[in-house]
Amino acid sequence: MCIRLFGAYLLAGILLLLPIICYSDKASDYTFVREAKSTPAVVHFDYIGIGGGTTGCPLAATLSHGASVLVLERGGSPYGNPNIINTENFAPTLLDTSPTSPAQQFTSEDGVFNIRTRVLGGGSALNARFYTRASTHYIKEVGWNQRMVDQSYEWVEKVVAFEPEILQWESTFRDGLLEVGVLPRVYLRAFTHSSRFASVCRPRKITVYLHATVQKMLFRHIPAYGVIYKDAYGIIRHRAYLKRNSKKNRIVLSVGLLMISGMGSAFHLRAHSIKVVADCPMVGQGMADNPMNILFIPSPQPVEVSLVQVGWRIDPFHSFGLWLIGHFKHFLSQVSISPGVILEKIMGPLSRGHLALRNTNPNDNPFVIFNYFKEPEDLRKCIEGMKTIIDVVNSEAYSKFRYKYMPVEALIDLLLALPLNRRRKHANVTFSLEQFCIDTVMTICHYHGGCRVGRVVDKGYRVPGIDSLRVVDGLTFYRTLGTNPQATVMMLGRHMGQRILHDGLLRGSKKKN
């Protein structure tokens, strides 16, 4: 079932987004995936992808059809990890603080807990499994080719998307929205997707090294020509170089390594004794994270375990979404009741912060501040969203899932007893939705910005003045896309892979002429 909402597309759910490389049911079938500690000291490839995340996997799969590709992933494999494969283990995985956890926790300067993924597949291997396309308006704004974007979305959807079963808790949420007059602009289109992976790569052309942490990129004057990375033993002896005399020659990376490699504010880089390759003061600026607020609803009857199945972008607010999640197990372990949860997320948002280095260790979390609700419009949307949630909870449709003797104030008090964040809780939070939004803000891990198109990279995702380098990452977006950006991040990997291959063919043709 495909739903169009204000130009965005919503699939009611998606299959666990294992890395989009090649189809296989077993990790052992991935002969091109190996541990970095067992790799040669020096290797040469046409393309080097730094990060095997949500963008990196479809990008590498696409590039493998025209060149040799190396993917360097600092995390491990999702295969054989029950915390990733099983839906019931979604929340415990986010709370795993071990050094090998696929979820590396960090706390922003706002006092909000957040996650950096550390696993092959990135956020697509560790997410709430809902899939939505970006709006046609955004596609026009960033200058993407609509036809190629649609084809790239379809390529992704054939690999990962499917129609889930909408259970009673989700259907009650939907009915409650309709009862209180929240009517999405929507049309439905039924279709069937395979839940299995198609043959989307050339295994002989792609190589993936796990637990390979890139320390820095190598530059000869301006062109980037290779990287240095360390393995799981901490041995920094591995080097990967671009092949010489190739018409391709590209290093594709995520944003985090730009500063460590010498691209950022010259003042900031010199403060960390980093050699300045390019003075790019906008690197790390304009960071944004979508605020999320939740409400628990203690239920007199069991609530099935589920992730995000129902999500609407709702008129008249246009810019906030509501999601229902059946259980957050890490909360349930701290209370004696078994509640369901309703979430709201502010689309956009307008509030911005920045990212900066704490040190030059790529494994360490940087300094990040998002300035949640700094812009009054974001706060207004949160208040309106919470009003809608309260109306839904008080609806007749929801009556079977809540105790009538518990007013909304009691639900808020229940929430305040939980360690949602590290922010101060004010005395008036129970009676002020404005203060409630500010004090109980959380993240849905849809942060973006910091390497925006037009400020850091051009429309071809190149860093101006730096040859052989592109940045293809969700941090290039200036706002979140759809109700979940995962679909567009994967689409971008496919889309840019095709563009890079096409550009390589053009360069090769010009050299011959």
Automatic annotation (TrEMBL):
Keywords: Disulfide bond, FAD, Flavoprotein, Membrane, Transmembrane, Transmembrane helix. SUPFAM superfamilies: FAD-linked reductases, C-terminal domain, FAD/NAD(P)-binding domain. It comes from Pyrus ussuriensis x Pyrus communis. The lineage of its organism: Eukaryota, Viridiplantae, Streptophyta, Embryophyta, Tracheophyta. Belongs to the GMC oxidoreductase family. The keyword Transmembrane helix applies. Pfam families: GMC_oxred_C. InterPro entries: FAD/NAD-bd_sf (IPR036188), GMC_Oxidoreductase-Related (IPR051871), GMC_OxRdtase (IPR012132), GMC_OxRtase_C (IPR007867). Its cofactor is FAD. This is Protein HOTHEAD-like. Gene3D superfamilies: 3.30.410.40, FAD/NAD(P)-binding domain. The chain crosses the membrane at residues 6-24, 251-269. FAD binds at T54, T55, E73, R74, V119, V214, G474, P485, Q486. One of its GO terms (molecular function) is oxidoreductase activity, acting on CH-OH group of donors. Residues 349-493 form the Glucose-methanol-choline oxidoreductase C-terminal domain. Disulfide bonds join C382-C437.
